[in-house]
Design brief:
Largest sheet: 8 strands, antiparallel
Order of helices and strands: HHHHHEEEEEHHEHHEEH
Strand order of the largest sheet: 1-2-3-4-8-7-5-6
Helix content: 40-55%
Distance between the termini: 47 Å
Shape: elongated
Strand content: 15-25%
Structural class: alpha+beta
Number of helices: 10
Oligomer: single chain
Number of strands: 8
């Protein structure tokens, strides 16, 4: 290739790369931090690989500049597609599923439990659930040591699994209770669990910072993982009251898992109507709390 034609090719491709660089940076500012932070890892990696071609914009080699143009053109098209899709993506993330899957079996439960004790446990559990849950509750036995109750409350789906944990002699030791409902993908992650002795000592010694809600009795009993703003928004007084009611039987674990689109409560105690009712009310408030998300400025 004659030298002047080579220079013309460099000038042309450099001009196109300047336009691509400007277009890309403008498009990137149209997408919010929430969009970038919530990208699936494989998408973040793929977009990152395309964007890395910006480092080739100043190259002297025509081959490297040509490669940069191909990759950055693809990246710019990806950005345009995500910007166009952002409103629909927001709606998808804000939608609350109308159904929810069953909690998984609890490790340690199983056929070591006496079938006589197990059948009595299932009978008692079924009677209490029918008393406290909405009409039309569906009870499904999972062996003679576990039972699943599916029902709806305020048009929301709920599943409660009760699993009897046997002692070495095959008698009922504890009963694991797991209740789950659906939440929007846009809900923030939050974990509220028992404040362990080690964690309490660490807090007292100033070894770590902890999210607190300003309620001494609640903060002394529960350990909160999540953003302080999210804890304040979800752990409103009535939710704290319901959780304290549950704590009379066993300190429960509350988890909002947006990736699974679920909010769940778990505790260990024999089935008690007041505990089940408190769990339903807790998860109802959590589920009905409006979520917000914005992917495009």
């Amino acid at each position: 290739m004659p030298a002047d034609l080579y220079r013309d090719a460099l000038v042309g491709i450099r001009a196109r790369l300047v336009d691509l660089d400007r277009r890309i940076r403008e498009r990137e500012t149209e997408l919010t931090d929430a969009f970038w932070s919530n990208l699936e890892p494989y998408l973040r990696e793929r977009l990152g690989e395309l964007r890395a071609a910006l480092e080739l914009v100043g190259a002297e080699s025509l081959d490297k500049l040509a490669r940069a143009e191909v990759l950055l053109s693809a990246y710019a098209e990806e950005l345009d597609a995500w910007i166009a899709r952002a409103p629909a993506l927001e709606e998808e993330w804000l939608a609350v599923p109308g159904d929810v899957g069953d909690p998984p079996p609890v490790p340690g439960s199983g056929p070591r439990l006496s079938s006589v004790d197990g059948r009595e446990f299932l009978r008692t559990f079924g009677a209490i659930v029918r008393e406290t849950a909405s009409p039309g509750v569906e009870l499904v036995e999972d062996g003679w040591w576990s039972c699943i109750a599916r029902f709806r409350h305020r048009d929301a789906p709920f599943v409660l699994r009760a699993s009897a944990l046997p002692t070495d002699r095959g008698r009922i030791g504890e009963v694991s209770m797991q209740m789950v409902t659906s939440v929007a993908r846009a809900a923030p992650p939050l974990l509220v669990k028992h404040e362990s002795l080690f964690a309490a000592v660490g807090k007292a010694m100033g070894w770590r910072k902890e999210v607190e809600v300003g309620d001494a009795s609640f903060d002394g009993l529960f350990f909160i993982q999540g953003a302080k703003s999210d804890a304040s928004r979800f752990l409103v007084p009535k939710v704290r009251s319901f959780l304290m009611t549950l704590a009379r039987f066993d300190v429960p674990t509350l988890e909002i898992d947006p990736a699974k689109r679920t909010a769940s409560l778990s505790w260990r105690f024999e089935p008690v109507a007041s505990a089940i009712e408190a769990a339903v009310r807790t998860l109802t408030v959590i589920r009905e709390m409006p979520s917000t998300i914005c992917f495009r400025r």
